[in-house]
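Quick check before the chapter quiz. The format below is the same one you will see on the exam, so make sure you can read both the input and the output lines.
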Amino acid sequence: MKIRCLILLALSLAAFLPARAADLAGKWTSEFDSQIGLQKYVFEFKHDGDHLTGQATHDHQYGKGTADLKSIKVDGDKVSFAEPFSLNGTDIIISYEGTIKGDEMALTRHVGDFATEQITAKRAAPAK
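Here is the expected output.
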């Protein structure tokens, strides 16, 4: 009887505890085909106090570059962030939203109003 009570108490407490946020910190890589051809990305996220910072490094037909990521959010296993991009003087926001499961991120990538792509990023290295 005592064991049943302890199990029920533990299950009840677990229901009220917040879900552990997925750990986004570290380096993630992605390669995917798009309307502009093959794109290679490295996303790197770091803890800065109680929030995350990040950078995206890209390599595609328009060249190579790095951008500071904006609006980085993690809620449980849900993740979202934005990458500012400039092409020929036109500023575009590339937004990402998806889920983290272990060492993979399944993301929907919205390139302004031009394109939407499904991509996968894989953890290359945990945060230092």
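If your answer matched, good. Residues 5-20 have pLDDT under 50 and may be disordered.
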